[in-house]
Write a structure and sequence with these properties.
With 255 residues, the chain is mainly α. Helix content is 79%, strand content 0%. The chain has one domain (2-254): Mitochondrial carrier fold (Alpha/alpha barrel), CATH 1.50.40.10. It contains 9 helices and no strands. The termini are far apart. The mean pLDDT is 81.
């Protein structure tokens, strides 16, 4: 009921375009965020491999957590700008929000809520990426290469990660707001539970899941397919290189 009222109220006040308010900074943020996150994950996986060259479950979780925190730290100011632009009235552009924050709150305001954001993104990406990798690895080999398998696996992993880590995202958003009364994660957790009960930690879960599941699933599926395509191209390149080298050696012997 409340969501329907909010929907109708926003439509009357700002029109249809109001639902896309703050979308540009989201687009600007998500591109470098995804790029850093996925690249960092592959890098950290190499770092966390054991002496036998294998990557354990703990190693995958650690790689995912580090990748999530790395990308969050790099793009966090854009996340704050996106949130402020979408919920605070009177702003039309990111630059307006940024200048006002600098004047009134200082540079530190761009990192309000960074702690809970890092705490929230670390387990989310860790669970998401780890489940995706392990489920894909457990599939029969003839199914692993299929886009449908990647997509279904990505949906499952993103769903479990979202359900597990959403309360931390709620705390992060509360701490990012201007004039927030919360000074720490524990303070915010206690305040939200006291005010709204445990269910308050999951406020907005459904629309978030509806947005996040396809977003995360498509991203992971696309990355998985591109990674396989690159690996296949590298193998083909190596094969062609080897064939050319053999031909050159044969020609040299004939001469």
């Amino acid at each position: 009921m409340v969501n329907a009222e909010n929907f109708n109220g926003k439509a009357k006040e700002e029109g249809i375009k109001g639902f896309w308010k703050g979308n540009l900074p989201q687009v600007i943020r998500i591109i470098p965020n995804s790029a850093v996150q996925l690249f960092a994950y592959e890098t950290y996986k190499k770092l966390f491999k054991g002496k036998d060259g294998e990557l354990s479950v703990i190693g995958r979780l650690a790689a995912g957590a580090c990748a999530g925190m790395t990308s969050a730290f790099v793009t966090y100011p854009l996340d704050v700008l996106r949130l402020r632009l979408s919920v605070e009235p009177g702003y039309q552009t990111m630059s307006e929000v940024a200048l006002n924050m600098l004047r009134e709150e200082g540079v530190a305001s761009f990192y309000y809520g960074l702690g809970p954001s890092l705490i929230g993104i670390a387990p989310y990406i860790a669970v998401n990426f780890c489940i995706f990798d392990l489920v894909k690895k457990s599939l029969p080999e003839n199914y692993r290469e299929k886009a449908e398998a990647s997509l279904l696996t990505a949906v499952v992993s993103a769903g479990l990660a979202t359900l597990t880590c959403y309360p931390l995202d709620t705390i992060r958003r509360q701490m990012q707001m201007k004039g927030t009364p919360y000074k720490s994660v524990i303070d915010a957790f206690a305040g939200i539970v006291q005010r709204d009960g445990v269910i308050g930690l999951y406020r907005g879960f459904l629309p978030n899941a509806l947005k996040n599941l396809p977003n995360s699933s498509i991203r992971l599926t696309t990355f998985d397919m591109v990674k396989r395509l690159i690996a296949s191209s590298e193998k083909e390149f190596q094969r062609i290189t080897e064939e050319n080298r053999e031909k050159q050696n044969q020609n040299a012997k004939i001469e």
